[in-house]
Every structure is written in C-alpha cells, then in structure tokens.
Amino acid sequence: MRSAQDGYCFSFPAVRGIQAGKPFYIATCPLSTIPKIFVFDEEEVPPELRAQRTLNKSRIPEMVRYLVDNPKGYVFSALTVSVASTVTFEESDHLDTPNLGTLKIPMDAQILINDGQHRRAAIEAAIKEQPELAHDNIPVLFFVDEGLERSQQMFADLNKYAVKPSPSLGALYDHRDESSELARHLAQSIKPFKGFTEMEKSSISSKSGKLFTLSSLKQANRALLGKGMKDSFTDEEKQLASEYWQAVFAATPEWQMVIKKELSPSQFRQEYIHAHGVGLHALGSLGCSLITAQPNEWKETIKQLKNVDWRKSNPVWAHRSMLHGKLSKASTNIMLTTNALKQTLSLSLTPEERALENQHIPSSEASNG
Question: Which residues of the chain have a pLDDT value below 50?
Fold first, then answer.
C-alpha cells in the first residue's frame, strides 16, 4: 500500500465523489493495513477535544468472535475516516472515468476514524487469532478533515440517524442464531403463533391483528429450554418447545377464542396478561420448571392452566405482572408472574423464588396465590 511518490505517502485506488460541495473518496483496504494506518483518539483525551466516543472494550470480544467464527460469511460495513492533511487525487488515464484514480495521503498525516473504531479494534484482534483474515478487504470512506469541530459534527451526524433494528427484525434476519431460528419456526408452524406473530416490530399497536412479537417468542423459548443467552438447541429441545407450546395452547381458552375469531386480538391485549410479553415469558419459565420436575407427567399437569384467571383486573397480578399499574417485562415481574403460575400447578417454589415472594408480595395475597 505504501509507495515513494510525492515524498512518502499511502496510495489507495479510489473513487471520488462530491457530497455537500466537498470531495470524498471511497477505497478498499486490506484488513492487515487497518490497524497500522487508521488510529482513534486515546481514551485519556477529554470528550470536548475528541472527535468520537471512547472505545467500549466490552464490545470487542463478541465482534472478534463473529469474524473468527464466520471467515466465509461475515459482513463489515465501511469505515468512515477523516484525513487531517492535504490529499492528492490522480485521475486515471481513461477519459470516460474521470472519478476513478489514486488517492495519495502523506504518511505523516493523521487519519482518524469517525465511524468504525470498534470494527478497527476487532479487526486487529481477529487477525492475531486468524491471520488469513489479513488478506480480506474492507471499504473505507475518506473525508478531508477541516478541523476538530467538523470531525465532531461528522460523528454526531453519522450516529444521529443510525437506528438499530428492532429485536424482532434482528431475530427474523439472523440465520446464525439458533434461538432466532427456533422462534421463526414456531411462528410459522404452530398455534397460536402461526399468523399471529409480529415478525418485524418489537411492540404491537392497538389496532394490530397480531398477538405476540418474534422477539418475545424468542425470549420465552430461551426461558423454556433453560438456555439463558445460549443459542444452540438440540433437535429434541426444538421438538419439546413445539410440544410444550401446543399443550399450552390447548389449555388456554382465550388463545383459542382469538384463533376462532371469537375474541379480537386488540380486546385480548387490552384485557389479558397472557396477550403480552410478560405472560409469554412467564409461561416459558413455567415450562422449564414443570418439565424438570415432571419429565413424564407435565403434559397432564399443564392442563391445569385452564384454571388461571388471566384478566388484568385479577388482583393476583397487581404486584406481579404490573409495575405502577402498568404491565412490566422486568425480570422481577416475569419471575413473580411465573411464581403465581407455579402455585396454580402446585409446583414448589425454590428458596430464591420464595424470598422474592416475601419481598414483593403482601402476605395476604401470597397466601391466596
């Protein structure tokens, strides 16, 4: 990449463009050169003198693992950098391609990353672990720096309109995550999820005909299979999840009423706990405890769900599924909702669950739970 032209400089085959009346350049660079050429501001520099946020080192290991585990399938978006120097662009000799050429940057120029400092750090670490990645390329967008204020504004502008996809949309498109795959499979194949799962958004509007979000189903499955954040499942576990949710559906009259169009989805969500993520997640957690305690009898025991009064107006949910009068998906509320379901099915609470009851549930309600 280095050449002794016009003094010492970096040379990049590049495409020139114009944005806001100013030239910018797009080039591809071998991953091996990224740590050597592009720098980011040191953490000790005060924020007001930096062009970007400090590096969040906790993000790096996951990104490194992504690169190393998917050498033939990873995708990294372009780095955006500012060059604090005068640059030279030599156009190609072809008259019909005036914006193709070679970008030359003095080797002593400071090149700061405006967007992509975590990708840069991950690339550096991944190459050490898997050297063959060094031969891959990444696109780089070069802007000629006009000072710190301009660089800071670029960082603000680049991140102001960057919208992270919803968890449901992430689960819909993520084909590496087995828990996402399982959620998609159930959403497309079994009642009550088939046709009633919101696949893109992670919240459901009042007028929607959907019941559940894909992200809520994904989390409920993780709770059911006791995986936490682990995302690998055996075929037996996937089959178990399918059988469990079908058994829950058979023991849940309101879900059946919605499927039969005897109850509208909007009315269901307005009046019932198990039309929401907290109820679905609690049912997943209940399944984990039930199947562990009764591996052979759980299908019979789950039929007792028919005795649950899921209406929001039921006082039993006031300190469990609710927080300040509104439904809550906080972990404590999910656990307290699960406790009530376990008691309905005559399942023993663990010491931790009992302690949670004593901490959050008034004694008069706990005895009725």
Answer: 1-6, 42-46, 48-49, 364, 366-369
- DSSP-assigned letters across all residues of 307-335: G---BTTSGGGTTTTEETTEE---HHHHH
Residue listed under structure tokens 């710190």: 148
Which residues lie across from 83 on neighbouring strands?
111, 144
What are the structure tokens assigned to 346, written together?
A: 């005559």
299/165 Cα distance (integer angstroms):
37
Q: What is the DSSP letter of 140?
A: E
Taken in order 173, 177, 183, 188, the sign of the CA dihedral is positive
With beta carbons less than 8 A apart as the criterion, state whether 32 and 93 touch: no
202-227 pLDDT tens trace: 788 878 888 899 999 999 999 999 86
**Is the C-alpha dihedral spanning 145, 76, 19, 9 positive or negative?**
positive
Residue 349 sits at φ, ψ, to 5 deg, of -85, 145
Tokens of 122: 């991950």
**What residues are paired with 103 via a beta bridge?**
12, 89
pTM greater than 0.70 (yes/no): no
Query: Is the preceding peptide bond at 192 cis, omega within 30 degrees of 0?
Result: yes
DSSP state of 162: -
φ/ψ of 82, rounded to 5, equals -115, 135
Is 84 in contact with 110 (CB distance < 8 Å)?
yes
Residue in the structure block whose two tokens are 């003095």: 106
- In the three-class reduction of DSSP (H, G, I as helix; E, B as strand; rest coil), residue 88 is classed as strand
Provide the token pair at 157.
Answer: 């502008």
Residue pointed to by tokens 């376990």 = 342
